[in-house]
Amino acid sequence: MPDLIDGSENVSVHGIFNWILLLAIFSVITVIGNYLGYKHPISDSLVGMGILSLITLIGVWLERELPFNVSSILYISIIGIIVAFPGMPTSKIVLYYVSKIELLSIVTVFLAYVGIGMGKSWDEFKALGWKAIVVTVLVIAATYYGAAIVAHIVLVLSGVPAV
Question: 67 exposed, middle or buried (CB, 10 Å; 0-12, 13-18, 19+)?
Answer without folding.
Answer: exposed
